[in-house]
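Ticket reopened. Same input as before:
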Amino acid sequence: MSMDEMVTRYREILEESPLEQAAKWKANHPGSKVIGCYPVYTPVEIIHAAGMLPVGIIGGGNRLEIAHADSRFQSFVCSIVKSTLELGLTGKLQFLDGIVFHSICDPARNLGSVFKRNFPQLLVEYIHFPQNMASPHTVNYLAAEYQKLKTSYEQLAGRPITDENLRKSIHLYNEQRKLMRELYRIRRKTPQNLSTLETYILTRIGTFIPPEEHIAGLKQALAAAGQRDERPKDRIKVVLEGSFCEQPPLELIEGLEAAGCYILDDDFLLGWRFFEQDIPSEGDPIRNLASAYINQSVYSGVKHDTRERKSKHLIDKVKETGASAVVILAAKFCEPALFDYALYRRALEKEGIPHLYLEFEEKMWIFDKAKTEVETFVESMLFD
Amino acid sequence: MAKTAESVKTSYQGQIHLLQKEMMGNYFNQLTRCAEQGEGKAAYMLISGNPVELMLAFDLIPVYPEINALQLAVKKVALPFILKAEEIGYSMDNCAYVKADVGMFLGDRKTPFATIPLPSLILCNYVGCNVYLQWFEHLAEYSDGTLYNLDIPFMRDPSGKPSPEDVTYVVRQLEEIIELCEKITGKKLDYAKLQRIVALSGETGELWSKIKSLTKHVPSPFDAYFDSVTMMAPLYCLRGTEDGLRFFEAAYKEMEEKARLGMGPLPEERFRFVIEGPPPWPYLRAFRDLFAKWGAVAVASTYSTVGGLWEFGFKHDSNRPLESIASHMLEWNLTNRNFLQRYDQIRRYVEEWSADALVIHSVKSCRLFSAGQGDMREYFTKELGIPTLLVESDIEDPRYFSEAQMKNRIDAFFESLEHKKIVREASAVGGKT
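Engineering reply: fixed in the latest deploy. New output:
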C-alpha cells in the first residue's frame, strides 16, 4: 500500500469512528477487555501485560454533538472534558471495561469522579502522577502507585500480570515509540516528504489498535516515506506547542501546513510518544516504568519539573530542529497550556524567536480565521 | 403568596471582627517590615493544607499569594493587576487569583494592606489544585526564590484514605524541606519548638471545629459562609501561634454565647442553606445581602474547609508532628479530596446541620471547585431531592459579577422555597384536623 492509500484509509477510520474499531476488536476477541486511557499519558504496558487493550479516549472530535454534558460541566470548561462525558452519556463507551484518568488538571480530575458516579459498571482508575521530580523518594511513590494499578487490573483481567509479561509489553511499546520517533525524525529532516497531517494520522491510529498491528503499519509507512523525494516548498519552518491533551481537528492541522508552514515538531498525542529513549526492560519492570516517567519523559504543560525550566526545553527544541518560529496551538480553556503560554512568550521574546498564538477547540468546524492568521504570520516571516 | 423580601443591609457587630482586624493588621505589618526593612525571610505557600508549622519553627514568615489576591479583590483594586497580567500573555480564561498576584508581583508589590516581600522559599504545597503548580512555577521564574514542589498525592482510593506509601512519601518530602529551611535560615530545626507549634495548631483547629458545630443551632449564631471568612483569615495566617489560639478562644466564647442566647446574624432566620464554592470577593457584601433579604443563613460551607477539615475529627498531634502535618495535607482538607467526597461532605452538612437547600456558587477562576458542579446539582436535585441553586460569577475578577442576574436567580429560588414551605405547613395543619 502506498503512503497516500494508507493515510486515506486511516483518515476515513478517524473521521467515522475510531472507537468503533476498538469495539469491533473486542467483539472479535471474546473474553477480552478494553481499558480507555484519557490523555495525556498512561503506562499502557501495565494494561497490555494483563492481556487487555489500552485505547486512547481522546475526545469526541468535531462530529459529536454535545447535548447532555454541557449541563454537567460549565461553559468555561474545555471541550474534551465535555465530549468525553457526552460519549459516556450517549452509550458510546459501552465497550470499555475500565477507564483511567490522571492528575493532569482540575477538570480532568473531577471528570474522573463524575465518571465514577454516572457509570458504576466501569472500573474508573485514577493515577496521581508525582510533581516533585527532584526528590529521590518519588520513584518509590510512583512504583507503589503503579503496583496498585497493576493489582487492580489483575483482578479485572482475572489473571496475574507477571514480570515477564510486563517486560514483553515494555519491549513492544518501546518498539512502537521508536518507530514513531523515526517518523518524526524523517519529517523534521525532510518535511516535504512527510506531512504533519500524515504523521498525525499514522500516530493517532495507534491509540486504538493493538500495538503489534500499529508496529506493522508504521514499518510500512516508514518504508513508503523513504520512497518519497519531493521538492521543498517555500514555507516557514516552525515548532508547534500546546496541543498535548485535547486534539485539534484534522482539517486544522492540514490548514496550518497549507497556509505555509512546515511543522518540524509538535506535541500532538504526546503521552503516546512520551519517551525519547527506550524504557529498560531488564530488572523490575514496574520500577522501570516509574523511573522512566520521572527521568526520561518529555516535558509538557502537565508536568512541573523544577530541575529544568519548561521554556528552556521549548527554546532548545526550536534550536535543535532549526525552526525559525513557534506556533502555540492551545486548546480553548486548557489552563495548563494557557499558563505555559505566558512563560513561553517571555522566553521566546527574550530569544527573538517569532511566534503565533492560536486557540482551537476539537469541536471547531470553521478554520478560515485560523488559516488567515497563519497566512499573515507566514507572510510577515517570508517577506520581512 | 410569598412575602415580599425586604432589602437587608448586613454587618457583623461582634468583638471578634475588631480582634481579627487588629491581628491581621499585625500580620500584614510583619510582611511590610520584611519587604521594606529586610526583617526576616519570607516563605510563600498555598492555603489548602500547608505545613506552616514547619515554617514557623524556622521563624520564616508565611506569605500566601491567595490571601494577597483575595485582599486585592476585597479592596477592589484587583482589576488593573489582572489586566497587566493579561497584557503579558495570561489568558482571559486563566485563574484570576494568579493574574492579580502576578500583576502585583511584577510591580513594586505595594498594596493597600501591605508591601509583599520577595520569597526566599517558594514552597508549592500541591494539595489538589493543579493551578498551584503553575502559579508557583511562574513566581519562581520571576524571582530568585528557591522552588520546592511538595507533592501531595490526591485522595483517589475508594476508601477516601491515603495509602501508607502516600504518607511515607509526604513525610520524606517534609524532611527534605527541613533541610532546605536549615540552609535558608542557617538554623537547625528545634524539634521541641515544632512540637509546641503543632500543639497550638491542634488546639486552634479543635476550637474552630467546635465553633463550626454551633451553627447546628436554630437559629444559627453566625453565618457559616459570610462570617466564617472573618475567622478563616486568622485560621490560615496565624495558625500555630499564641495569637491565633487567643483569637479562636475569643471567637468560641462569643459564638457560644450567641448560640446560648438564641441570637443569629439576621433579624429572623427563615431559611438555612449549605453553600458550596468560594465567595465572589469583589462583591461579597452585595452577594450576602441578596441572601439576607430572604432571611437565608448559611449553616455550613465547603469553602471554609479548603485549609482544613477539622470538624470531621482531625487534630494536629504534637507527638507525631511530621506525620500529623502530612495527614492534614493529604486527607483533612477539602481540596485534596475527590469530587465525590465533596458530595458526601455536602450531604452530611444538609442532614446534620438541618439545611433546607444547597446553593452552589460556581466560579470561573477555580476549576478545582467548579468543574462538574452541574453534575453535583444533578445529584442533589435528582438523587436526593434537595432544592439546589447554581449561580455563576468569580472569586477575583469583577467583570464576571452581574448583580441583576444574580438577584433574579436568587429571588426566584427563595420565592419557590417559600412557596413550598407554605404549602408544606398548610398541609401539615390540614393533616392534623
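Residues 15-432 of chain B form one domain. The longest strand of chain B covers residues 119-126. Please confirm and we'll close it.
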